[in-house]
Prior knowledge:
The structure holds 2 protein chains of 2 kinds.
Chain A: H1 2-9, H2 12-32, E1 36-37, E2 43-44, H3 51-77, H4 84-100, H5 106-128, H6 130-159
Antiparallel strand pairs in A: 1-2
Chain B: H1 3-26, E1 40-41, E2 44-45, E3 60-66, H2 71-89, E4 94-100, H3 107-120, H4 124-133, H5 145-154, H6 159-168, H7 172-184, E5 192-197, E6 200-205, H8 210-220
Parallel strand pairs in B: 3-4
Antiparallel strand pairs in B: 1-2, 3-5, 5-6
Helix pairs in contact in B: 2-8, 3-4, 3-5, 3-6, 3-7, 5-6
Amino acid sequence: MAQMIKMVFSDYRYIILAATIFVGMLIPLSIVSEFIFLEPYIISHIPSGSEFSFFLIVTVSALSGLVLAMNVYRINAFRNTPKKKMGGGIFGSLIGAAAGACSCGPIGFAVISTFGVAGGIATAFLTNYEIHIRLFAIAILAYTYYATTKSLAVECKIKN
Amino acid sequence: MGKKGIIFGGIAAVVLIAIIASASISQTGNEALNLDMGQTHGTVSTAMGSPILGSDSAPITIIEFGDYQCEQCYNWYHNTKDSIVQNYIETGKANLIFVDLAILGRDSPKAAAATYCAEEQGKYWEYHDLLYTYQEEVNSGWANSERLKAFAFSLELDQELFDSCVDSGKFAKRVQFNTNEAKKQGATGTPTFIIVNSEGQQKIGGAQPYSVFQKVLDSMN
């Protein structure tokens, strides 16, 4: 597995891609989960008791960067390869992002205001099971990572 | 003075006694009921909000728009509020008013209304504190009618009076008014704060840390 990572990230473009996806997920997720505030001052704050929630956001973002960059490499290197595993990575990232997008923040309020009771039930579910949903997203991303490295190993052998 | 005069006089006396009695009951608690219908702070109508926590004459008013089922409000209550109370409210530099923005779930308006039932018995802030101490997951039943009544029992409120108040839904419109006021003020999440002094007002969105409030409050002092 480490060999596959080395192979993919030996090309600096994939390091940039992974870092961009990581930062591109971490910052917005931290904002909607109220770990970063932009007004009246830009400040980051992890309230006591929310450390695990923040750790899960970092994990989802890091795994998304890793898995999506590896899949882009796989698609570029082996043009005829199926794109299913890329879908798994995107699906996992979206689930992980959705879990934090609700609660008491503006997105949750917009959903409740737009969809009424149904929106309230949906946001309550996403809020109450935020940790479980993020863990589920991490499981999907971890599986996608495993499947991607396995697939890369096989495809590299065939190519060689 | 005929019979009619005696009857009218009797009715007037009974009404007068009832008014004086109800007024004295409402003043027996730690807090006076918030009955000034024209009360505003900055652009915010706080007439239907909580009683004022702190000195009425404090130069700064912190208005919190919140929901008793909101996790971020819980975070703010447990991580930031104490320092603000200690350094600004108890020292007379600021006061605080809570205005309901009760939309997170079906039990949110009920919990908000129950705080006003507690206010009738002079224990608004004690009840408010209790709700934020025992908050659980949204709509998990922790703020249903039975639990709200149990909270009143633990505060040794007049249980019969409190139960009939909760069951009657008499404060539903007050909560709705507050929720509409919060939306009118542009609150798009809970908690949202508007900090008001004589020169203007500033909004703070979310459960921000004490350092942010300190900066804003000091700049307005």
